[in-house]
Amino acid sequence: MPDLAPQSTAGHWYLYILRCSDGSLYTGISLDPERRCMEHNQQLSRASRYVWARRPAQLIWQRPVANQSVALRLEYRLKRLTKVRKEQLLQEDGVWQILQATIKTAP
């Protein structure tokens, strides 16, 4: 579940990926991915149901993005990638560049 706190001019929005205890991957956005990971693991009221059922989850990837709007669009696209493609993203920065380019060319 995305962290929808008001946009801060002091911080950046981040797209992040968690690896759950069953090996599955969870994608989200947040102003503070480390805090968000802790919430997923320790606070039922703030966790996504998916991650809560597969705890503990570990923050394995994060990238800053321009703003919340871009973060939401990238999250949408990333959630639709196959697990194989997400694993490639974790290993190859070129996949991240392609994903970002889809946002710039999207209507």
Automatic annotation (TrEMBL):
<dbReference type="InterPro" id="IPR035901">
    <property type="entry name" value="GIY-YIG_endonuc_sf"/>
</dbReference>
<dbReference type="InterPro" id="IPR000305">
    <property type="entry name" value="GIY-YIG_endonuc"/>
</dbReference>
<comment type="similarity">
    <text>Belongs to the UPF0213 family.</text>
</comment>
<protein>
    <recommendedName>
        <fullName>GIY-YIG domain-containing protein</fullName>
    </recommendedName>
</protein>
<feature type="domain" description="GIY-YIG">
    <location>
        <begin position="11"/>
        <end position="88"/>
    </location>
</feature>
<dbReference type="Pfam" id="PF01541">
    <property type="entry name" value="GIY-YIG"/>
</dbReference>
<dbReference type="InterPro" id="IPR050190">
    <property type="entry name" value="UPF0213_domain"/>
</dbReference>
